[in-house]
Amino acid sequence: xxxxxxxxxxxxxxxxxxxxxxxxxxxxxxGCLNESIRCWSNIxxxxxxLSRAHGKSFAHRSELKHAKRIVVxxxxxxxxxxxxxxxxxxxxxxIVEQVSMLQNQGREMMIVTSGAxxxxxxxxxxxxxLSQSVRQALHSGQSQLKDMAIPVLEARACAAAGQSGLMAxxxxxxxxxxxxxxxxLVTNLDFHDEQKRRNLNGTLHELLRMNIVxxxxxxxxxxxPPEPNSDLQGVxxxxxxxxxxxxxxxxxxxxxDLLIVLSDVEGLFDSPPGSDDAKLIDIFYPGDQQSVTFGxxxxxxxxxxxxxxxxxxxxxxxxxxxxxxxxxxxxxxGHVITDIVEGKKVGTFFSEVKxxxxxxxxxxxxxxxxxxxLAALQPxxxxxxxxxxxxxxxxxxxxxxxxNKKDLEEAENKGRLALPLxxxxxxxxxxxxxxxxxxxxxxxxxxxxxxxxxxxxxxxxDLDLEQVTVPIGxxxxxxxxxxxxxxxxxxxxxxxxxxxxxxxxxxxxxSNQILHHLTQEALSIxxxxxxxxxxxxxxxxxxxxxxDKLIDLIIPRGSSQLVRNIQKAAKGIPxxxxxxxxxxxxxxxxxxxxxxxxxxxxxxCEYPAACNALETLLIHRDLxxxxxxxxxxxxxxxxQVKIHAGPKFASYLTxxxxxxxxxxxxYGDLECCIEVVDSVQEAVEHIHKYxxxxxxxxxxxxxxxxxxxxxxxDSACVFWNASTRFSDGYRFGLGAEVGISTSRIHARGPVxxxxxxxxxxxxxGDNHVVSDFSEHGSMKYxxxxxxxxxxxxx
Length: 794
Prior knowledge:
The chain is of the alpha/beta class. Helix content is 39%, strand content 17%. Strands 5-6-4-3-7-9-10-8 form an 8-stranded mixed β-sheet, sandwiched between helices. Strands 19-20-18-17-21-22 form a 6-stranded parallel β-sheet.
């Protein structure tokens, strides 16, 4: 009781700063009645709803966020410095910060740590150097002092010298986050004695109940030699040979939800890390050991990767999920633990549930292989596949619409989609007919897309150079609420010979499934079924964006928020698309009365959810209080368009509509902003300042003014006396589009087949070498342009 009271007073002091912060933010109430606050003694801390019946490990990474009790095992390579004499303090501080963050969320964190031997070795080396004779040090010289021989230090002695310092360091670090830590040293004998096991279990439970983080380590000062291979025969039998087996044993004993093993490698590889063909294994299943080749163990520590895998499988058998990851990489060590708990694709996840289909990595490899076979087909064969897909869209119309009806009913019942997204989700007979027409356009225009020679140069006699079009490789297209996007993008990928990964929104799951099935059916006529893959696994978009070795281009189709998130998450993979569609229509003083209302109505009201719909209407100042202006306002009111006034427009009105919060808003609905400008120059400046370089329009009968607008507006699409809605691959005659790009590199505007191609150079010579073209060489450069081969007239 006395010890408990002392602990209470100590913890009360430690939690004082956190309590002050909670009071400041309004999250603390006296008595701790707030459901978001859990209390022990008078110490509140934020919690998250975490509950799970232990006994079965998590099947998927996405479930790890529900883990309540977590063991973090820190390998020797993670804790120690490169010279093995001392601790990696920055790395350790980062780990403590992450553990503290999770602890303050209401999780129960435990740490199994190495490092005592390294810390003790540093202290003992220092003591040995200090104990040398000062006279000897002075006479030997500074350079010789550095090379002074230090005897080999016995590991148990180092552990004894380092334990107290290591724990003091942890205590000081956790103090910064108002968290108390407690040290527990164990040996293998503690687990074989039933009474000691119960005592250990009770101590750990009591520490966790008091919001204390246990710091656990093998008592290396007295640890006996490991027993021979008598472990891993059952859930209750595993020898504590190293901290890997200790962490696994504790995880099962304490019914832990998650064990995170941090080492100096990214996870488990199918061959030794560093070898040319080594691939990181994302998910490891029991029984896969024979497919893995283990390398040497780390520079420090007792266990290697084989020991980690055995311990992980033993813990998994006991109902604890396991992730092995890199805790030393400077780019990820600062958030590796929290990333794992959030379900991100980090390290190797051990799971007992094997998915029915291939992994996304396998799908990407299948798409690349299928894409290369597709590119090698004759143009007529690729066109035949697309024609077949167009026929299937009309022949299987009833099945497609039935699947789409299921998606619409589920979305309406759950109420999770706004009206504009519901409209995008909906398919109809007319939409399918339009899709089929567009696909036939793609097939007809794809005859000479791949392998087309776009430049020929004679470098020298018998040395000819060609630049030809080739596919980009593997495309990842991520789309929301747009099932009609699937056949469009598939047809463009087929026509351009690209492999394709498709990631659709779950709100369109039924529609996407049948459309993908029909796509693969069409591909099967020439044996390239695998070229187009639909990702059905629980992969998060952020994880897909990290597959830089498997994916060559990402094309997002959806909300501006989706595009921004993908652009932020993409690591080393280019992203084609636009984050916003803030399209303008400028009405000039010389505009035709008959054209103005028709173009504005079509631009705004024909499909307000589209990215090429009008969002800001710019009106020349001289048109205010004219019949034309009144006609515009009346038309918008009849169409039930909500009007927001720009700052200048509002200043001209006594009673104005609600003033716009920002001039950079994509409404995506029957809403728009009206702003006043003094000239075409000011209209151009406004578009450059507030637009998104998507599509902008001028309505005028003055050709000079129109040409000024067309030449000076720096957007992907600039129109004169035409609706913004014409900014579309189908309407441009491209058949379809994978999206509209506002980037300035590669494709811009509606992206069709041409935007999915790149080039390569083919050089045909006859025993040519560069040295022949030197100053005293026998050959000279010609660099003659050669005529291009005749294009297919069809």
